[in-house]
Structure formats: C-alpha cells, structure tokens
Specification:
The protein is of the alpha/beta class and about 260 residues long. The chain contains nine helices and ten strands. The chain has helices at about 50-60, 80-90, 105-115, 120-135, 150-165, 180-195, 210-215, 230-235, 240-255, and strands spanning about 15-25, 25-35, 40-45, 65-70, 75, 90-95, 170-175, 200-205, 215-220, 225-230. The chain is globular and about 55 Å long.
C-alpha cells in the first residue's frame, strides 16, 4: 500500500479557495475563500441553510464539492482514499447528534477508532481513551453505555473520542443544538478548556454569547457565501453588513 501523502511544514491548518458546491440546482457554497490559522478559534454563524455545516463537512471530506480547492496542512484534498485518510487523521469532527455506538461502553466508543484507524492494540487504545475522558472530566462514566448518560455527557464523550485521535484541527458542527439548555454549559466549558490548550478549532454554533467569548474570529455566512468576517468585537459590536445586523437582531431577540 502506498504511503500517506506528505504534510507541508508551516502551511496553515486550512486553506480554502474558490469553493463551490451544489446539491442539484441548489448552490450550497458559492466561491468561498477561507484560511484558518494555527490555534485559531473560528466561529461560523448564519441562518439555517446558509452553508455553515456544509463548509466544515467539506474540510473533512464528508461532503464533496464541484469547484475550488481545499488544503489541510498544505495537502490538497481530493477524493483519493489515501488523501482522505491522511486528512482525517489530522482533523477531528464532532457532530450535533453525538453518533456514539449504543451497544458499546463509553470507554470502548473512544477506543474503537484508535484501534481501527491508528492501529493501536487494545490496552494502549483503552489507556489513551481513558486519558481523554479524564481531559473532558467524565472518567467515572467509562464503564457506562451512552443511554445511561445525559446529553451533555454524551457530547463530551464524542469530544473525547475525537481528541483521542490527537488531531491538529477540531471541527464542531452545532455541538450544543441537541442539548437541553441546562446541559449546554458543560459542553461549552469543555470547548473553552480545549481552546486554552491551543487547539485549532472551527465551530458552527448559534450560541452567540459563547461565540463572543470564545472566538478569535467570527464569520457570518448567508446563501453560501461569507458575508462578513472579523473579530467578535467587530462582528457583534459593529457589523458592517445589513444581513449580519438582521441576523443578530433575530437571534438576540430569540435568546
């Protein structure tokens, strides 16, 4: 089997140029340009159907695209299996729906990808999985099954599972949207702790208060395009575009 493609030193974690994607006649992404720098905490916000989730799913090759280019650590993303594998070893993904195996314990949920993808033996895989359960502060849940956990705990398990693969970049797609309000804080606190460790992160979220505190940069998307980008202070405090202002008025009214 051929070796994994080489990563380019000193390249940004993510470079996207001219990215466009269609679902049939619907254009989900429209000539998107975006660079994510090392240790950056990027928050992606915008109305439903604006392309936020599609954008981050293309970075991890969960969605294809028709035009443009994506590079992860300098490696150009193609559909070639060895390229997809190399990218996914660099990029962790957390979904809004947890995606835990219900018939496996918490520990085994976290250890499985280490065995299947990283090729670790059972003992080392479980040891590393436990270390990351400790990192997200739920090691006492290791022997339980997902159904025995709250939604917030299940999401923290999903984060631990992604972290155990030791990615260079974490993508989080609405990680709190499936949670009851009282469970949201524990997941957001976990993400803040990861950021303090210097993890590069891109987060799709509707939690604007969290975005303001957490992000180093915010992008606002609408109709498949990046309409506005800047610091949280600039985007939330003095947005330049009327579409951004209208969106913020709506979400702050709902909040």
């Amino acid at each position: 089997m051929s070796a994994d493609p080489a990563i380019i030193a000193d390249a940004p974690p993510v470079e996207i140029r001219g990215l466009s994607k269609w679902y049939g006649a619907f254009k989900a992404l429209d000539r998107v340009d975006l660079t994510i720098g090392p240790a950056e905490r990027l928050v992606i916000c915008g109305p439903s159907g604006s392309g936020k989730s599609t954008l981050i799913r293309t970075i991890n090759a969960l969605e294809g695209f028709q035009e443009g280019e994506i590079r992860v650590d300098g490696l150009r993303l193609t559909r070639e299996p060895r390229v997809v594998r190399a990218v996914r070893l660099r990029v962790g993904m957390v979904f809004q729906s947890f995606n835990l195996f219900p018939h496996m314990t918490v520990l085994d949920n976290c250890a499985l990808p280490l065995r299947r993808v990283r090729g670790l033996a059972v003992g080392p895989a479980r040891e590393r999985a436990m270390a990351y359960l400790e990192k997200v502060r739920i090691p006492e849940q290791a022997a339980k099954y997902p159904a025995q956990l709250s939604g917030g705990q299940q999401q923290r398990v999903a984060i631990a599972r992604a972290l155990a693969m030791e990615p260079q970049l974490m993508l989080l797609d609405e990680p709190t949207s499936a949670l009851d309000p009282e469970m949201v804080k524990e997941v957001l606190d976990t993400m803040v702790a990861l950021a303090a460790d210097g993890m590069t992160m891109a987060v799709v979220t509707h939690e604007m208060g969290f975005a303001r505190r957490f992000a180093t940069r915010v992008i606002f998307m609408d109709q498949g395009r990046i309409v506005e980008a800047g610091t949280p202070e600039a985007v939330f405090g003095a947005p330049k575009e009327e579409r951004t202002r209208a969106f913020l008025r709506q979400v702050l009214r709902e909040g």
